[in-house]
Amino acid sequence: MTPRIPALLAVLALGGCSSGNDGEKTEKTEKKVETTRVEVVEGQGEGGGLDARGIYERLSPGVVTVISVLPGGGLLGGGDDQSGQGSGFVLDGEGRIATNAHVVTTGRPPRLREAKEIYVQFADGNRVPAKILGADANSDVALLKVDPKGLDLTTLTLGANKDVRVGEPVAALGSPFGEEQSLSVGVVSALDRDIESLTLFSIGDAIQTDAAINPGNSGGPLLDQKGRVIGINAQIRSRSGGGEGVGFAIPVDTVKRSVAELREKGKVDYGFLGVTSQPLYPQLAAKLGIDAEDGAVVVKVEDGSPAEEAGLEAGEDKIDFQGVRGVPKGGDVLVGVDGEKIEGASDLTDLIARKAPGDKIELQVLRGDEKREVTVTLEARPDRPPPAPGDRDGR
């Protein structure tokens, strides 16, 4: 059995004791507000590799520790508060900071609750209160804000998904196990991974890395060799609870989208189609008689969903093929969204996730020898995904 992928928030039950944050005051200075826009760090050594020391010296001041006082009692509330700790990084000179949603919230939608108090500690020792501008549970991204007065802020530069390659060196900065301003290095192990969000919907295009990531690293940046943020460290796959060389980061394009909407309106709206699908590949396509090598085979259409209203159908006949049981035959296969090719079920999820409720999309659909265009108006994504066929827990 594949172990569950844990999020990386380090949590300590407070009981009746002080957290150590209460009553602590940050010394005020008369220093004029200074903000520093960090230039893109080339950071390459003589061999064209990662200049880890150079990146650390230039960018670690822009990486922060995020301390959260979380309401106790799990989903139902009550009980002692908990102190959670993660990481984050500075986005701009106005004091906006990116981190993971699970660092500053507890529970899952629809019972997701924000932290009662949040503090941000900088590399120079300043610890200041922060407020949540918004938390995006679907992409596990949160946007915080601190008062920049008296702070010398170093901001990090965001990269782009298109520039990330498997095998390139990366650096992870954060506070694993509360050890602040820690650096680990590795490579991009894989791209286009799907990881589970707080809503149980998938987060697509995640970056897999072997850079050491441990509890407390959540929310910290994954940096390329030029010092650009290419992701937010978020999860590990582990049998022991610690980093074992399989870590995952939220991709930077997803972070950009979330941050922009959280800044504008405090939430992120996602479109919803209402299908469960599985990937099509050449041998399966030949077996199903489909004239395509890639796509998403419709497995289930949700009652009352936009997909049902548009006439999408799953095949009623089922076959077992190459170790996969219950593959629908005779139904729809989705091969494109607005002309953009679908290369698998995860591509469909990603393309729909980029859309907002009310958006109209054009689906390119195959059913047997027939190819057609289907117009669908998306609805708002629910708090949880509908149960998949044969899935009892609703994931």
Tell me what the structure shows.
There is one protein chain. The protein has 395 residues and is mainly β. The chain has helices at 52-59, 252-265, 282-288, 306-309, 345-353, and strands at residues 10-13, 34-37, 63-70, 82-90, 96-99, 105-106, 113-114, 117-121, 127-129, 131-136, 141-145, 152-155, 169-174, 182-196, 202-209, 221-223, 229-236, 247-251, 271-272, 275-280, 295-301, 317-321, 324-329, 333-337, 340-341, 360-367, 370-377, 379-380. It is globular, with a radius of gyration of 22 Å.
List the helices and strands and how they pair.
Layout (H helix, E strand, L loop, with lengths): L9 E4 L20 E4 L14 H8 L3 E8 L11 E9 L5 E4 L5 E2 L6 E2 L2 E5 L5 E3 L1 E6 L4 E5 L6 E4 L13 E6 L7 E15 L5 E8 L11 E3 L5 E8 L10 E5 H14 L5 E2 L2 E6 L1 H7 L6 E7 L4 H4 L7 E5 L2 E6 L3 E5 L2 E2 L3 H9 L6 E8 L2 E8 L1 E2 L15
Parallel strand pairs: 2-12
Antiparallel strand pairs: 1-4, 3-4, 3-8, 4-5, 5-11, 6-7, 8-9, 10-11, 13-14, 13-16, 14-15, 15-18, 16-17, 17-18, 19-28, 20-21, 21-24, 22-23, 24-25, 24-26, 26-27
